[in-house]
From TrEMBL:
Signal peptide: none annotated. InterPro entries: Gaa1. This is GPAA1 protein. Keywords: Membrane, Transmembrane, Transmembrane helix. The keyword Transmembrane applies. The keyword Acyltransferase does not apply. GO terms for cellular component: GPI-anchor transamidase complex. The chain crosses the membrane at residues 203-222, 242-263, 275-295, 315-339. One of its GO terms (biological process) is attachment of GPI anchor to protein. The gene is Gpaa1.
Length: 356
């Protein structure tokens, strides 16, 4: 009955955690992405502009911890996070990120270490690809969302539901005044604290420098003569000779993607194993079978496993790895960076010296 509300507000209580939220979202948008079937018809209030997922374990709150990492590493618009922080400061409510108490901004070593630890925790959470709350599923539908968790761990701070209610109402009032979706500000960022962020222009060069190692390795090997002199009778490796090992690797990847799900269905029907055990056993079987690949790959490379054939295969593998990590870093920086930091040194250090 308040005339200042220009938009509808939906209060949603779901069960089964993320499954219930995904079922409601699919029913609301009339899509079926995961095969979940929900019963009943849903009322609709138009396009959803933003969402706040609230998780409270008690009526006493010592702080509100905000979660921003969504499905597949998606992040909400930074303005929504800034809005939450502004109202926490206005109402005197303690707000945290990654469960870490904020420290005063400064140039001390302890402050830098605290911000670095918070940033690394966000990198690990984003790289996992798992949503850290119900808000992570809203981002799939281009709905800016956050999850606010009521924390009751810091005994020196205590707030009642009035302070939490004022913060939520203030955020809703601001979102109520929007005439369009949140589309400016940043969608790609890392958070060392709630008051500071690192934009994509500053952290993306870190992946670029790692991939530069592979590019330099490719250019170095491309201009280097063979490790051992080749006689005129030695076969020259052609591009077609590189197709079989690449196809074998892709077949192994497709097997890891599809066979665990198929094995889960077959095993649960014919063997006394659980679904989780069936997935694990199928994955282990694929990995054991894949151990035979290095011993058989040299048979399909031209030259019978000569240094030149292996070097051509290694150059293609490095180029392929650089392209894949670069594309992955654009979609999920944290996952691309962690994979690059672990795979690039090993890939650059290994030198092809025959079937070994």
């Amino acid at each position: 009955g308040q005339i200042y509300w220009a938009k509808d507000i939906i209060f949603l209580v779901n069960e089964h955690d993320l499954l219930g939220m995904e079922a409601w979202l699919e029913g609301y948008h009339d899509v079926n992405l995961t095969g979940i079937r929900s019963e009943g018809t849903l009322g609709r209030a138009g396009a959803i502009q933003a969402a706040i997922a609230l998780e409270l374990s008690s009526d006493v709150v010592t702080s509100l911890d905000v979660a921003v990492e969504g499905l597949d590493g998606r992040l909400p618009n930074l303005d929504l996070l800034n809005l939450f922080q502004a109202f926490c400061q206005k109402n005197g409510l303690l707000c945290t990120i990654q469960g870490k108490l904020p420290r005063p901004d400064g140039d001390s070593l302890a402050a830098y270490g605290h911000r670095l630890q918070t940033l690394l925790l966000m990198v690990l959470a984003q790289a996992s690809g798992r949503p850290r709350g119900d808000h992570g599923l809203f981002l799939r539908y281009r709905i800016e969302a956050l999850t606010l968790r009521g924390v009751n761990s810091f005994r020196q701070y205590k707030y009642d539901m009035t302070a939490v209610g004022k913060t939520l109402e203030g955020m809703f009032r601001k979102l109520n005044n929007l005439l369009e979706r949140l589309h400016q500000s940043y969608f790609f960022y890392l958070l060392p604290s709630l008051s500071r962020f690192v934009s994509i222009g500053h952290y993306m060069p870190a992946v670029g420098f790692l991939l530069l190692v592979l590019i330099l390795k490719i250019s170095f090997w491309g201009g280097t003569p063979p490790l051992t002199p080749c006689s005129p009778q030695d076969p020259q490796p052609g591009l077609l000779a590189l197709v079989p090992p690449v196809l074998i690797c892709h077949a192994a990847g497709l097997a890891l993607y599809f066979l665990p799900v198929l094995g889960q269905r077959v095993a649960t029907q014919h063997f006394p194993v659980s679904e989780a055990e069936a997935v694990v056993l199928t994955a282990v079987a694929i990995y054991v079978a894949g151990m035979a690949l290095p011993h058989n790959t040299h048979r399909v490379v031209a030259g019978g496993g000569t240094d030149r054939g292996w070097m051509a295969l290694k150059l293609l593998a490095l180029l392929y790895l650089a392209l894949q990590l670069g594309c992955l870093a654009l979609l999920n920086f944290s996952l691309g960076f962690l994979l690059a930091a672990t795979m690039v040194p090993a890939a650059a250090a290994v030198t092809p010296t025959g079937p070994r």
